[in-house]
Write a structure and sequence with these properties.
The protein has helices spanning 5-47, 79-87, 110-115, 265-271, 293-299, 333-339, 387-390, 440-447, 495-504, 531-547, 572-582, and strands at 52-55, 58-62, 67-77, 94-106, 118-127, 130-135, 156-157, 163-180, 185-204, 211-215, 220-229, 235-245, 250-260, 277-291, 302-319, 344-361, 369-384, 395-404, 408-417, 425-431, 434-435, 449-465, 469-486, 493-494, 516-524, 553-556. By secondary structure, the chain is of the alpha+beta class.
Length: 583
C-alpha cells in the first residue's frame, strides 16, 4: 500500500518525534547517570576511613525503569589495618571485605529523589556479591564502653534526605565467608546464598531534622536449602529452611543437619591428633520466640523468651584408641555461661521427642560401648550470661526425662547456681525397674562385665559437685544378680572372674537381713574430660560400692531417708589427693 504525501509527512513527523525523544531520554540518562555517579562517589568518599579502600567502576541510570546500577563496587581493608587486626593492636576484632559486581536500585522515582530528597524504591538487588567477615585477634587494649559506637535504630542521623522507603532487598547467588586471620583459615562459608528482606523504611522523627527511626515491624526473611562448610572442612551444616518474621518475633529453622564430610567416621578419627567427639546431628525443627531484635541492634544483647527443639537426633562417636589431649579444660554448664563474653538471655529451652546415642571404640574391643537415651525430653530454664541477670541469684535448671537404652525410664535434674564463687551445683535422679541384662550393651564392651540374671527395681541418687570433685549418695534396689566377665579381646568368658563375681558380689539390696545399703558416691574429676564423663564416673562409683562388699557402702535400715548432700568443698587436701591420683 502506497502512502499519500500527507501520510508520509505525518509518518516522518512522528518518527522524528520518537527519535528526538529517544535522544532526549539517552541524554537525560547520561546526565542523570553522571549526576548520580558524582553523588554516589561523593557519599563513598565521605564514608572512607584510613582502614578501608572503597572503589566503584561505573554508575548507570535509566529514567524509564527507574533503575540505577552500580558496577563493581568493592570495599577492602587496608593492609596495615589487617596487620594490626591480626596482632590484636586494633581497637576491634573484626573487619569486612565486600565485592559487589552488580548493585541495582530498582523502581526509583529519580526526579522526586533529586528534587525533594525523598527516596522511594521498589527493590535493592545484590547480585553475585561476596561478603567476607575477617576475624582477627582479640584487642589487647579494651575500648571503654562509652566510646563504643552502637547503632540506635530509634535515632539514626542522616543529613540531606527527607525519608527512605524500601520495598525489598534481594540477594542472588551471593557468597558469605567468615575468615580467621590468625591461622589463615575459612571458618564458615556458603556458596549460593539467596534470600529477600521485605518492607522496612526510615521515618523522620518529629521535630528532629536529619534524625530518623528505622521501622522493621513488617520484615520477613525466608531462606531455603542453605549449606555451609564448617571450619576445618570436616563438617557441613545444612538448613532446609530459615524463616524469620519480625512482626511475630519468630525465627524458625527446619531440617537441620550437621554431618561429617567423611562417609567413614573412622577415616575422620584417623586424621585427628587426639580422642575427640565425632558428631552426626539432625534436627526436625527449632523455633525461637519473642526475640528482642531492637535490643540486639541497639545494645548488642540477645534476649529470647523461649526455644523449642523437636526431633533432635544426635550420635556421638569417640575413638579412644587415640591419646587424650590433657591440655583441654572443658567447662561445666554454669562455667560456660559465667565466662561467656557474648551477652545472652534465654528464658526457657524445650527439647522434645529426641534421641541420643553415645558410642566408644576402645583398643581390642570387638563391640562398641553404646549408651542410648531414647524418647528424650528436657526443659532448661534461665540460661543467661548477662551480669545483671546473674546477680538475681537465680539458677540454671535442667530437668530431663528419657528411656535409658531405649527401655528404662530415667529422670535427671540439675541445679546450677550462676552467682556462686564455689561453682557448686546439685543433681538428683531416678532410674526405673529393668532386667539387668538390658545394660549389657554398655557394660560388656566397657568393663567386660555381662549380666546373666538380675532384676533392677530402681536407683535413686543425689549429690553435689564443683569443677574438681563430686559427692553424693545412691540407693540401688535389685535382686537375683548373676554376672560373668568376658575378656575384651576374646569371645570366651573368664570363668574364674565370673565365679568370683557371683561369689563376692551382693546378690540383692536389701540383703537377706533386710538391711538396705546406701552407697556413698565420690569421684575426683579428670580435668581434661567433660561433664558427661564426670557424672557417669560418679554414678559408677555408687553402683560399684552397692554391689561389691569391699567397697565402702553405708548400711542403713529401710526406714532411713536420704539426706541432702552438703555442697562439696575443694580443699587443699582434696587437691593434693587429686594430683597424686593423676600421677
Amino acid at each position: 500500500m502506497k502512502l499519500s504525501g500527507k501520510q508520509k509527512k505525518t509518518f516522518y513527523i512522528i518518527g522524528g518525534i520518537v527519535v528526538f525523544l529517544a535522544i532526549i531520554i539517552v541524554a537525560i540518562n547520561l546526565i542523570l547517570g553522571h549526576v548520580i555517579e558524582n553523588k554516589v562517589r561523593e557519599a563513598l568518599d565521605k564514608q572512607k576511613e584510613k582502614k578501608y579502600h572503597i572503589e566503584i567502576y561505573t554508575v548507570r541510570a535509566n529514567i524509564l525503569t527507574g533503575n540505577v546500577n552500580l558496577k563493581d563496587l568493592s570495599i577492602t581493608p587496608d593492609s596495615l589495618f589487617l596487620e594490626r587486626l591480626k596482632n590484636g593492636d586494633a581497637t576491634q576484632s573484626s573487619a569486612i571485605e565486600l565485592s559487589i559486581p552488580t548493585l541495582r536500585f530498582a523502581g526509583i522515582d529519580l526526579f522526586k529523589a533529586l528534587s525533594s530528597q525523598t527516596i522511594s524504591l521498589r527493590k535493592i538487588l545484590f547480585k553475585k556479591a561476596h561478603l567476607r567477615m575477617i576475624v582477627g585477634k582479640k584487642p589487647k587494649i579494651k575500648t571503654p564502653k562509652e566510646k563504643l559506637a552502637r547503632l540506635n535504630i530509634d535515632s539514626i542521623y542522616i543529613a540531606g534526605i527527607d525519608g527512605v522507603d524500601i520495598g525489598s532487598i534481594a540477594f542472588e547467588s551471593c557468597k558469605l565467608e567468615i575468615y580467621n586471620l590468625e591461622n589463615n583459615k575459612v571458618m564458615l562459608e556458603n556458596q549460593e546464598l539467596e534470600f529477600t528482606i521485605k518492607d522496612f523504611y526510615l521515618k523522620e522523627l518529629d521535630g528532629n531534622q536529619n534524625y530518623f527511626s528505622l521501622h522493621l515491624e513488617n520484615i520477613k526473611l525466608d531462606l531455603n536449602n542453605e549449606k555451609f562448610m564448617v571450619p576445618g572442612g570436616n563438617y557441613s551444616l545444612y538448613f532446609g529452611r530459615i524463616y524469620f518474621d519480625l512482626a511475630e518475633s519468630v525465627l524458625e529453622l527446619e531440617d537441620i543437619a550437621f554431618k561429617t564430610t567423611y562417609d567413614d567416621k573412622y577415616e575422620l578419627a584417623r586424621k585427628l591428633k587426639y580422642t575427640s567427639e565425632i558428631y552426626d546431628l539432625t534436627v526436625g525443627s527449632v523455633k525461637l520466640t519473642a526475640i528482642d531484635l531492637r535490643r540486639l541492634i541497639n545494645d548488642g544483647e540477645l534476649s529470647i523468651d523461649s526455644v523449642e527443639v523437636e526431633q533432635l537426633n544426635l550420635a556421638i562417636l569417640m575413638d579412644k584408641r587415640l591419646p587424650f589431649n590433657e591440655e583441654r579444660r572443658p567447662k561445666l554448664p554454669n562455667e560456660v555461661l559465667q565466662n561467656m563474653k557474648f551477652p545472652l538471655y534465654i528464658g526457657k529451652i524445650f527439647l522434645k521427642d529426641s534421641y541420643l546415642k553415645y558410642q566408644e571404640k576402645t583398643e581390642n574391643a570387638k563391640e562398641l560401648m553404646t549408651a542410648i537415651m531414647g524418647n528424650l525430653n528436657a526443659q532448661i530454664s534461665f540460661a543467661t550470661s548477662l551480669k545483671d541477670s546473674i546477680r538475681t541469684d537465680k539458677s540454671l535448671i535442667i530437668n530431663m526425662q528419657a528411656n535409658f537404652m531405649e527401655k528404662v525410664p530415667l529422670t535427671l535434674n540439675f541445679v546450677f547456681p550462676l552467682n556462686s564463687r564455689a561453682d557448686t551445683f546439685f543433681y538428683a535422679g531416678h532410674l526405673s525397674s529393668a532386667k539387668m541384662n538390658e545394660f549389657n550393651q554398655a557394660s560388656l564392651p566397657a568393663l567386660g562385665l555381662k549380666f546373666q540374671k538380675g532384676d533392677l527395681k530402681e536407683i535413686n541418687f543425689n549429690g553435689s559437685a564443683n569443677p574438681t570433685i563430686s559427692k553424693g549418695s545412691m540407693v540401688m534396689l535389685y535382686s537375683g544378680l548373676e554376672a560373668e566377665f568376658v575378656k575384651k579381646n576374646e569371645k570366651d568368658k573368664n570363668k574364674f572372674m565370673s565365679w568370683a563375681a557371683n561369689t563376692v558380689t551382693f546378690k540383692s539390696n536389701p540383703g537377706k537381713n533386710n538391711k538396705l545399703r546406701t552407697a556413698n558416691m565420690e569421684f575426683n574429676r579428670v580435668t581434661y574430660k567433660g561433664f558427661g564423663n564426670f557424672m557417669w564416673k560418679t554414678l559408677q562409683s555408687g553402683i560399684m560400692r552397692t554391689v561389691i562388699p569391699s567397697s565402702k557402702a553405708t548400711k542403713a535400715g529401710p526406714e532411713q531417708k536420704e539426706k541432702r548432700q552438703e555442697p562439696v568443698k575443694n580443699t587443699k587436701k582434696e587437691k593434693r589427693k587429686k594430683k597424686k591420683d593423676r600421677k
